[in-house]
Amino acid sequence: MRFSIHSLCFRLTYMSALLFCCCLAGNARTFGSEAEKDTTVYDQVEKLAEYRGGDKACYEFLSKNIQYPIICQLFKYGGRVMVQFIVESNGKITNVHAVRQFGSKLYPDDRIVTAEEAMQYKTAFPQRSAEVHEGMNLADKLIEEAVRVVKKMPKWKPALDAQGKKVRSRMTLPVLFKP
């Protein structure tokens, strides 16, 4: 009887110690991952994120990769699209979207395709007739292209905080379409 009680106590002590160690190890992992995953996005930083090669290289990338929508070219339609995105602490580009600022020079005015214009386009380009329809907003075509190209960008140099640590930051990039 004494042997089984002693054995039971030993097993309970052993199991408690094992459970305690597992809990500590689990907490250590949790605390470590929380410290590593800073989800804050900074708008103001000590050093801004930068395209590798600088602004000139950034605009060269844009000019080489933008495919000006043909429908916009035909209607001599252009404008500036402000594209906002996050540069992650590893330099990767995420959360890419256009910033709509209607009534300002920072955003192309809406341009709606009429039924007559849609028919003219379909007649001139029958192989591309599915690309255009009455009521279509040409501003949306420019926005789609600007967002597509920014998503395609290679990694940037991430922003740095006051301690020199790489942080996530929000950037806004103007993409100009000139007919």
Distance between the termini: 95 Å
Shape: elongated
Percentage of residues in helical conformation: 40-55%
Domain unit count: 2
Number of strands: 7
Q: What percentage of amino acids are in beta strands?
A: 15-25%
Number of helices: 5
What is the H/E order? HEEHHEEHHEEE
Please outline the major beta sheet. Answer: 5 strands, mixed
Structural class: alpha+beta
Brief description of this entry?
The chain has 179 residues and is α+β, with helices and mostly antiparallel strands.
Protein traits:
elongated; alpha+beta; 179 residues; 7 strands; disordered N terminus; single chain
Structure description:
- This protein is an alpha+beta fold and 179 residues long.
- It is 42% helix and 20% strand.
- The chain has five helices and seven strands, in the order H-E-E-H-H-E-E-H-H-E-E-E.
- It has helices spanning 2-36, 54-65, 70-74, 115-124, 138-151; strands at 41-42, 50-51, 79-87, 93-99, 156-157, 159-160, 166-177.
- Strands 1, 3, 4, 6 and 7 form a five-stranded mixed β-sheet that branches. Strands 2-5 form a two-stranded antiparallel sheet.
- The longest helix has 35 residues, at 2-36.
